[in-house]
Amino acid sequence: MTPHIPALWPKTTGETSFWFTQTGRPMPRPALPGPTQADVCIIGAGFTGLWAAYYLSRAAPDLRVIMVEAEHAGFGASGRNGGWLTGGFAWTHDRYLNTSTEQAVRALVRAMSGTVDEIIGIAASAGIPANIRRTDELLVATNPAQHARLLDEHRSRTHWGETDIQIIDAADLAQRVAIPNARAGLKIPNVARIQPAELVTGLARLVERMGVPIFENTRVTTLHSGRVETTRGPITARTILRTTEGFTSQLAGHARDLLPLNSAQIVTAPLPESVWDKIGWQGYEMLGDFANAYCYCQRTDDGRIAVGGRGIPYRFNNRLDQNGTPDDETIRRLIAILKQHFPAAANAPIDHAWCGTLGVPRDWCARVDFDPVTRIGSAGGYVGVGVSTANLAGRTLADLALNRQTALTALPWVNRPLRKWEPEPLRWLGLRGMYKLLNAADRAEAQGANPSALATLANRIKNS
Ligand SMILES: Cc1cc2nc3c(=O)[nH]c(=O)nc-3n(C[C@H](O)[C@H](O)[C@H](O)COP(=O)(O)OP(=O)(O)OC[C@H]3O[C@@H](n4cnc5c(N)ncnc54)[C@H](O)[C@@H]3O)c2cc1C
């Protein structure tokens, strides 16, 4: 008997991401040929590793830089994300004050926001189209509790130097996009929409043209100062940069550094003009909301809606997804968000669903690390805001690897003390409990409750 498949169920799932089904998988690159020597070995060919390679070889063309990648360039979150290029700042600014000053945190905010122009400029000069479109970010509040969070967010961002953001009322919002029950929106200018797989594969080709070989299907098993062991032979390198973000927990000795948090997306088929007439969204804004378990959406170049959200946040003992295949419960939740925010597209066919992993440090604050003694560096923990952050991290890693003391190496996310995650089962229980509370808070708030005590409790767990 054929199993019953609901009409709205995605036609395909996994396959790394919808973005790769659009671009087609690039030709595989050769694996490491055997024992190899280099000046710098970069582990992981996502945005962080690729940007580090780009800036290193631009600054020091004679340096022998090589990259090793377990699967293929862009296999990780860099080829799977929501395509929000925002120059945003992951998690609370105040946390960086433990080890720095307000002035330094503002410098970090400015540097992050500069990444949008930096990436767009390099992509343009290297001929990487990546469907880049400059637009605004629009975060929408659909109930009183979300509205209160919107006002908090506006206050906080303004305090930290983002003076060009603006609150827009329901009427102005409706001119841009029709979201049921929308009360207000936070408009953040100077962001862009990208096609992630195109950007990451274009960047990989650029880095190769600059003379950096990328060895694919080459998994690093261990690393020590000066030496990296891989499934294809050892590498000796004076400097090693580990840029494995959401996969870091799989490396021996790193199980509790960055928690692998899941994020997932669905994408509709291209929608007819009659549907777009109802939705609006002619500005292709990056659309999100102020739910506790928030969503992120983009209107694609070919007229689809991509909706992203958390779903099942964390699998016991750092277990990862299989090539981007999400679980059914996550898909159901994303379809519910599509219907809630875009009722005109409620019956649209869903072409694809996929997921990926992002890295979360115990203090939920992105970081760049470099030990001048072992000469091992790393960056990550972007908590889902990594498309732009990875550029700044890669640039900073390059300066650190070149022993340069620059404005970037002085930023307060460099070499902060690392707090490890709790061992299992505490890690799983904590994350699971936290997201159950956040989802329950969203349900209560949708019924008109104030910013709920449940959300406060969830945030206490997070900040404990
Ligand atoms: C579904 C989803 C949606 C997202 N949406 C957005 C968004 O819209 N905007 C935004 O700013 N951020 C978003 N993010 C986060 C962002 O994509 C990431 O923060 C960013 O891409 C991380 O880049 P990276 O290079 O550090 O890591 P990755 O892209 O994950 O790259 C790490 C690479 O290391 C390789 N690797 C791992 N282990 C080994 C090993 N042992 N040996 C060799 N290679 C190894 C992996 O195969 C992978 O290619 C999203 C993330 C996900 C998962």
Describe the protein's architecture and organization.
With 464 residues, this protein is α/β, with parallel strands linked by helices. The chain has a domain at 425-464. Helix content is 31%, strand content 23%. It contains eleven helices and 18 strands. The chain has helices at residues 18-23, 47-59, 102-125, 144-159, 170-176, 196-209, 273-279, 328-341, 389-401, 426-446, 453-463; strands at residues 12-13, 36-43, 65-68, 84-85, 133-141, 166-169, 184-193, 214-215, 220-224, 227-230, 233-242, 258-268, 286-289, 296-299, 305-309, 350-361, 367-371, 376-380. The strands form two sheets. Strands 1, 4, 5, 6, 7, 12, 13, 14, 15 and 16 form a ten-stranded mixed sheet that branches. Strands 2, 3, 8, 9, 10, 11, 17 and 18 form an eight-stranded mixed sheet that branches. The longest helix has 24 residues, at 102-125. The chain starts with 11 loop residues before the first strand and ends with a helix. Flavin-adenine dinucleotide (FAD) is lined by residues 43-49, 68-71, 75-78, 80-84, 86, 219-220, 243-247, 251, 263-265, 296, 308, 355-358, 380, 382, 384-388, 390. Flavin-adenine dinucleotide binds at residues 43-49, 68-71, 75-78, 80-84, 86, 219-220, 243-247, 251, 263-265, 296, 308, 355-358, 380, 382, 384-388, 390.
